[in-house]
Amino acid sequence: MKNLLKFIGIALLTFTFAFTNHPQKTIVIDVSHGGDDNGATFEDFTEKEVVFDIAQRVIELNKNSDIKIVLTRNSDDFLSLEERAKMINSFQPDFVISLHANLHPNSNKKGTEIYISENNKEIEKSKQLALNISNVFENQNPVIKNANFQLLRNVEFPIALLELGFLSNKDDREKLTSSKGQIELAESILKLLERK
């Protein structure tokens, strides 16, 4: 009987360690713009709607219970940059990705752009995050840039701003606004979130 109880005790301990060995990651996706702030606009397409739709698809497609994804907005609401930073910091995330869609007068300009700030408290980890994004989105010729954007400065955790493509470019626009393209982008973001 004692041996049986000892076995059960060891089994329970092993079971507990098996499920506590991989703590859940908390990742914030900043869904940019919202409310009266449309962000970039091209014809009938707005940045605020595009990034919202893609963020929702990320949530829907995430089947990994080790990853907790928090969105800065779940509806068409406006939050100031100060409010966004305060909210994000309160979640104490492992890292943050701020989703955006780009616009340029030259319709030939396309691809992904990634921004980090040298003034971010966790700049080394932010650089690594940017490199991870670059690797996942390598087929879109990603470019990593330094920018002193307010959100990148004020968030106290690793953060990168991800411009998913240009609404002003026909190919990028198709990817950003079609169901198929949005699912592909959401799947790429999930691959990024699952990286160690």
Automatic annotation (TrEMBL):
Protein name: N-acetylmuramoyl-L-alanine amidase
Classification via SUPFAM superfamilies: Zn-dependent exopeptidases
The keyword Hydrolase is assigned to this record: yes
SMART domains the UniProt entry points to: Ami_3 (SM00646)
Catalytically driven reaction(s): Hydrolyzes the link between N-acetylmuramoyl residues and L-amino acid residues in certain cell-wall glycopeptides
PANTHER family associated with the record: N-ACETYLMURAMOYL-L-ALANINE AMIDASE, N-ACETYLMURAMOYL-L-ALANINE AMIDASE AMIC
GO cellular component terms given for this protein: outer membrane-bounded periplasmic space
Species of origin: Brumimicrobium salinarum
Protein EC: 3.5.1.28
Gene Ontology MF annotations: N-acetylmuramoyl-L-alanine amidase activity
Cited Pfam families: Amidase_3
Positions of the MurNAc-LAA domain: 85-194
Keyword field: Hydrolase
InterPro entries, sorted: MurNAc-LAA_cat, N-acetylmuramoyl_amidase_3
GO annotation (BP), single: peptidoglycan catabolic process
